[in-house]
Amino acid sequence: QAFVTLPDGQASGEVAARARRHGIGVYPVDDEHLDAASRSASLILGYGTMRSSQIRDGIRRLATALDGAA
After folding, report:
1. Burial category of 26 from C-beta neighbours within 10 Å (exposed 0-12, middle 13-18, buried 19 and up)
2. Segment (H or E) for 44
3. Which of 21, 25, 38, 45 pairs as cysteine with 34 (C-beta 3.0–4.6 A)?
4. Are 41 and 16 in contact (CB under 8 A)?
């Protein structure tokens, strides 16, 4: 797994929803030890069972989702 902090202006729930529309699963961080701003701007990326080609494709799709494309 990887923990990532999103660029300013990106909310984790919104990005996760856009990512799902692009066929990938990323997950907002739900950790009570983090402040609300950090939780809102953070995602968990799971990749343990994926091949490197699938990871590269997922990162490209996540970049598209971050750009806001539907």
Report:
1. buried
2. strand 42-45
3. 38
4. no
Residue type, 8: D
Nearest to 58 by CA among 28, 10, 32, 49: 49
pLDDT band at 70 (very low <50, low <70, confident <90, very high): very low
Sign, CA dihedral 49-51-52-55, equals: negative
**DSSP classification of residue 7:** P
Q: Which two tokens stand for residue 3?
A: 């923990």
**How far, in Å, CA of 47 to CA of 51, rounded?**
8
d(CA 59, CA 43): 13
Residue 12 tokens read as 């984790």
Quick: pLDDT tens for 4-32: 898 888 889 999 999 999 889 899 887 77
